[in-house]
Amino acid sequence: MMLPKKTSLAIATLGAMLLLLESAKLARPFTLADVLDFRPRDIPNVEPLAPMPTLKGPVTAFRRPIIEPNLIDPHDNLRPFYLALWRTELGAPGAITRVLHYGDSPVTADSITADVRSLLQQHFGDAGHGFVLIAKPWAWYGHRGVEVQGKGWLINAATQVRARDGFHGLGGVSFEGDTGASSRLTLAEDHALMEIHFLRQPGGGVLAVEAAGQKLGDVETDGPAEQPSYQTFPLNAGAREINLSVERGPVRLFGVSFERNTPGVIYNSLGLNGGQVQIVVRYFDKPQWTEELQHQHPDLVVINYGTNESIYADYIERYYPGELRQVIQSVKAAVPRASCLIMSPMDRGQRDSDSRITTVPTLPQLVEIQRQMAVEMNCAFFNTFQAMGGAGTMARWYDSTPRLVSADFTHPLPAGARKVGVLLDQALESGYRQFKAREQRPARSAPAAQETH
Amino acid sequence: MLLTTAAYFSFLAAVFFAYWLAARYRLGALAVVLFANYFFYARWDLAYLAIIPAASTCDFLIGNALHRSSRRQLRRLLVTLSIVLNVGLIASVKYFSVLPWVLPLALSFYGFQSLTYTIEIYRRDAKPAESYLAYLASASFFPTTIAGPITRISTLLPQWSKREMLSPRDGGKALFLIGLGLVKKLLIADFLAENLVNRVFDLPKLYSGAEVLAGVYGYAFQLYYDFSGYTDIAIGSALLLGITLPRNFNRPYAAQNISDFWRRWHISFSNWLRDYLYFSLPGLRSSWKIFAYLNLVITMVIGGLWHGAGWTFVVWGAWHGIGLATHRWWQAWHGNPKLTLTPGARFLCGLATFHFVLVGWVFFRASSLSTARDVLYQISSGTISFANITPAFVLVMVIAIGAHYVPPRWYDGGLELYCQFPYYAQAAAIAALAVAIRYVAGSGSAPFIYSRF
């Protein structure tokens, strides 16, 4: 017997202490069987991923029906959206299909939405970029096709230092500027119209608007009462650099929309960093938001929250269904003729005690609540989580080459975002094709005129 | 079986008791170590049970043949065979998978250690192992398997013959090192990685210049604490069996110049590169001094390529190679002056060296040259926002920086104090650490960075 006495005693005592701590749930759970587990679990998952459809090229997939099991629409709620798409596809003048996509951090840099926009516009026409904020409320804010620079603005995002009056505009962010505050928006392509979203208010100042170095006019923001307002300016061909500057403060802006005078799709990306349904319920001024939604005349409103809520088991159980219901009610009350689509969050991973990347345990529960609520509230439901591959997707996406998800196992990298965007686009277009085939069966006619709005 | 898991520490405790119970009989102790080594490999993948004994037996036989032979050509052929075997083993696992599945553990550190054996016998610097069992136990010694420290077989072999009992001080030191390694890895390195570094390097354009710079500083300390944390656990584990492994780090960011840095960072690797690669390159004894400088660059580029077959590692190696060559040339030009620097000058030299190393880390960590360029571009943009830097991240960074620069005598004082604790206090201190990890660390530990090399 040659055991080193003191160290042996220390190790034995430590073992006993850890067993006690574990039984009191104070140490990390552990079973002795783990030591003898020879399954090859540390091998990275190298299961090949399905090939990505290309974004450019002939639209052959459009003609082939695809069975899409992840888009649930039992009440035919997507009918107004499909009808709008049909009109757009027929190319009638002014036939623009408008989508508002509200989302959380995976959408904040126009991830996912930029790809859906690109695909829908390839297939149905490009009616413009849509809404964009006038400065970066968070460092990574950005939209594909629009470069945004702003200075001198007091920025109040609904998820951060929120505006006291709850006026956060269409995009959830308010920009207050005094004389000298300015923004420059650089477009990658020509647009025909630009609409400034601002707050008319007593004592409001003047905003000067320039395009390609030419002054387009002023926006007078003074008015008898606080009221969300809009002013449109035409843009000439080649006018891609827009400058907004406060000539006399105060001026309060919410964003700018860009459109073309051609039939097509406008897909507005409205991602809020840290976005949750409770932000909309608690911190959006309801009348003001209603006014903003109504002004857009959307054909589809996508509600794509859940990433941030997914780690709070107690909240999900107690409050989440009620708050999600309130958001859907607000949207439906504001734009009753628009389709409503609940889009579930992506998979979200975390490392377990054995260093494996696993799905956050409460996420499937949250997705199921969303599905039930969509059915109850007469909305469609897109199960992003399931479409991606369900539980464990983040581990596969993290180990894939190229990597599809960031090391936080939450935010998609560009290739991953494109994959999710393609999945959503495929589901919507598949649904649209099935809708069209069904509508054409009894009488091969264009959408009924009375259903326009 | 990562060195931070409960499974590993249960395994280590079992090996400790079995080893010391068998220590009276050298053969018994070696059999315990060999069983533990192969058990450890098998936990990663059962395929290692075929690969490692076969490769070790080849090197053992080559070593014997090298020792017996005096024919220069044959000896050269034999050492070449060993180099091809070990480099081939590293390359086949690391770069070109010859198996139908991916082996989770690169065999770099195994290969480096094995090469020290045959090359030293070839150079007549060491004699072959007398015991086959001792050789097998040394070549595959489990604490060094994942990421070193690279230990010459010739320094391990004589330690198996020691008859001394583990002293209370060495036992205390082993436990102290293991605890320290866990703190470094789980409470500092993983925290920095998960809370900023990984996200910044995944999508640098989404963060402000200040945040990206903070992410790069964070990475410098994450890498140090990750790797030195692993090393502490490895050295502590070996010391529990009475085996002393070489030191691998000596406050590297306190280096005064780039040569000094490489005497303090991954010491066993830089020594290996110097002794087995740099000295083996042609032209060192040439009167053309350019060869000495060129060989430095070549050595570091090969060292970079060992980390991975990518341009980022080539740039990292070349950056350090050019830095080392320039420093050596400067010293030669000034006649190797012994400079006595003022504290202020020492601080500036240290700061400059640290930032030189920091630029290298950008390439070392970035997934591609374009990502590295984005990181450097974002930093140079000068944009300032700290929205993604939490107070907790700042606190951990302050602790990380402070702990790195504490005088060595403070560390020695802490070690001595711990060694003097009674056994139950030693156990209680580590149990308290386990509880802290349960509550403070993330939900799981990421693999050690160097385990993939």
Describe this structure in words.
The complex is a heterodimer of chains A (453) and B (453). Chain A is of the alpha+beta class. In chain A, 30% of the residues lie in helices and 25% in strands. Chain A is built from 11 helices and 17 strands. By secondary structure, chain B is mainly alpha-helical. Chain B is built from 18 helices and no strands. The radius of gyration of chain B is 23 Å and the shape is globular. The model of chain B has no long low-confidence stretch (mean pLDDT 87). Classes of the chains: A alpha+beta (453), B mainly alpha (453). At the A-B interface, helix 1 of A face helix 1, helix 2, helix 8 and helix 18 of B.
Characteristic key phrases:
heterodimer, A: 453 residues, alpha+beta, six-stranded mixed sheet, 17 strands, 30% helix, globular, disordered C terminus, B: 453 residues, mainly alpha, 70% helix
Q: Secondary-structure blueprint of this entry?
A:
The complex is a heterodimer of chains A (453) and B (453).
Chain A: H1 5-23, E1 71-72, H2 79-90, E2 96-103, H3 113-124, E3 130-132, E4 146-157, E5 173-187, E6 193-200, E7 206-211, E8 214-220, E9 227-234, E10 241-248, E11 251-259, E12 264-271, H4 277-283, H5 286-296, E13 300-304, H6 313-318, H7 320-334, E14 339-343, E15 349-351, E16 357-359, H8 363-376, E17 380-382, H9 384-388, H10 393-399, H11 414-440
Parallel strand pairs in A: 2-12, 2-13, 13-14, 14-17
Antiparallel strand pairs in A: 1-17, 3-11, 4-5, 5-10, 5-11, 6-9, 6-11, 7-8, 7-10, 15-16
Helix pairs in contact in A: 2-11, 3-11, 4-7, 5-7, 7-8
Chain B: H1 6-22, H2 26-44, H3 48-68, H4 72-94, H5 108-122, H6 132-139, H7 153-156, H8 168-202, H9 209-240, H10 258-264, H11 267-277, H12 290-307, H13 311-333, H14 343-365, H15 369-381, H16 391-405, H17 408-420, H18 423-440
